[in-house]
Amino acid sequence: QVQVVESGGGLVQAGGSLRLSCAVSGRTVSSYAMGWFRQAPGKEREFVSAINWSGGNTYYTDSVKGRFTISRDNAKNTVYLQMNSLKPEDTAVYYCAAQRQYSGSYVYTRRDDYYYWGQGTQVTVSS
């Protein structure tokens, strides 16, 4: 069974930074494309960032470009989301998702593209 577990959320002041981690167990993470999504209260879950299986291709939603960085360490079966210059509107539960991918540079940006999901980690940015 593949398990996806997020960590690293918390409370931070506006302008601060957090690094989220996503550990994948059960299979080697290098066999998966990974994505980060978030869901604020009363809103739908939205795409944040994605990375292909090798880490060679990444994609970000416009609102986080230049502030967030997605990366992966396949040796540690972990994907990261470094979040800098955080804003109150970044407050949400952040979810990590995985989808099998063995080759290519395609990055998945839709919720329906992903089969495996974590339980989420809360990020709260105070003004």
Description:
This protein has 127 residues and is mainly beta. Strands 2, 4, 5, 6, 9, 10 and 11 form a seven-stranded mixed sheet that branches. The chain has a four-stranded antiparallel sheet with strand order 1-3-8-7, with no helix packed on it. It has no helices and eleven strands. The protein starts with a strand and ends with a strand. The radius of gyration is 13 Å and the shape is globular. Strand 5 and strand 6 form a beta hairpin. It is 0% helix and 50% strand. It has strands at residues 3-7, 10-13, 18-25, 32-39, 46-51, 58-60, 68-73, 78-83, 92-100, 116-117, 121-126.
Number of helices: 0
Cα radius of gyration in angstroms: 13 Å
Number of strands: 11
Q: What level of helicity do the residues show?
A: under 10%
Instruction: Indicate the multimeric state.
Output: single chain
Which structural category do the helix and sheet elements fall into? mainly beta
Q: Give a quick account of the main beta sheet: strands, pairing sense, barrel closure.
A: 7 strands, mixed
